[in-house]
């Protein structure tokens, strides 16, 4: 454990508990002078003190962890990168803020999010009053999705109440792992009076995978779904019928700003439950640890696709039973990010896309092949990434299919637990230097830079040669 100075957090805890220094020192079993040194950052927190805080106040020691600090630093860097602020804030200052006053840091990040939301609304209104209706629609359509993504990001992509409920139902039903579809069909019929049909008629509609008729209590599934996909759709319907109140309670507490965001959040939470039901937490985590997080082996074992396994691996953050903290992303060939989830501190930029040096884009040139990469961010943190393409198609000959690249990553310190580190030279100095996107990346000599970073000026000759509208390479 590195030296961690958390004096301001201790002072805040003492104020919240309405304790004097002497009273807190007594509860923790340390001397008054030692507590005074801790609160004034003259001594670092130690493991015994952290364990005492957990025992006396029930605090999760993860709240003092380096990962949360790194998340906040990344968020602050993006929030304060606006050149109109007139200040260039050093990383050392951001780190001090994140370490000593995390509540202030989170408040700044939230203010920036509200500012961005207001700016998007202003841009949308301007477009509405003008002639660019397409730009208006694009701005308005993106906001609810980003709001829901932010919600899952702030939850570390783990919704404990839904995970626990799903595991309890799976245990009660004694569903066979990897062959849950018949059991889920019987459960819907016996508990909810729902008849399940595999429907090839036009009534289901093109591209529709699940259609529920509440009047006739009939659930129709597309015949294009494989057994694992059928199980997922059945589990989603169970979430809608059985956990609607719990899901609405979670959404209400999140205080989303629009009905569309609330609707998207309910769908996302129902899908989360479905994944947790067909991949029960303890069973799935034990199997993942046993096979060293081999995604393809897990896919065969549980009868679901590569992408579903990746998504579930990014949610294994139950208190006292944590898996490797993964980040998960799905992109298309154009670089559009349709899914991004983070169980830990990796920050996905919302400004200017992602980095072309990232192996998630190389996957399109190697369809179906698993690619690995050691990647180093500008803050010198190194990550192990695994990427592969996935395709989804429901039509016949000539029908267009959807192809994405999905990637799963983690901090390099977890590499030994993962099969994909096998044969790799785990040396941070050999890692590919990547960034969060050109607008917020400060690497001056990157050969793939598309435009200057926000708030930082490049040399005039470099700007003219590389970023002029009609410049040649």
What does this structure look like?
This protein has helices at residues 7-17, 21-28, 32-39, 47-57, 66-79, 91-100, 102-129, 133-154, 160-173, 181-192, 227-242, 244-254, 259-278, 281-290, 295-302, 306-313, 359-362, 460-467, and strands at residues 195-198, 210-213, 218-221, 317-318, 321-322, 327-331, 337-342, 371-376, 382-392, 402-411, 432-433. The protein has 473 residues and is an alpha+beta fold. Helix 12 (244-254) crosses helix 13. It folds into 3 domains: 7-102, Orthogonal Bundle (434 Repressor (Amino-terminal Domain)), CATH 1.10.260; 160-278, Arc Repressor Mutant, subunit A, CATH 1.10.10.2910; 327-467, no CATH class. The longest helix is centred in the first third of the chain and has 28 residues, at 102-129. Helices cover 47% and strands 12% of the residues. Strands 7-6-10-9-8-11 form a 6-stranded mixed β-sheet. It has 18 helices and 11 strands.
Please give the structural blueprint.
Layout: H1 7-17, H2 21-28, H3 32-39, H4 47-57, H5 66-79, H6 91-100, H7 102-129, H8 133-154, H9 160-173, H10 181-192, E1 195-198, E2 210-213, E3 218-221, H11 227-242, H12 244-254, H13 259-278, H14 281-290, H15 295-302, H16 306-313, E4 317-318, E5 321-322, E6 327-331, E7 337-342, H17 359-362, E8 371-376, E9 382-392, E10 402-411, E11 432-433, H18 460-467
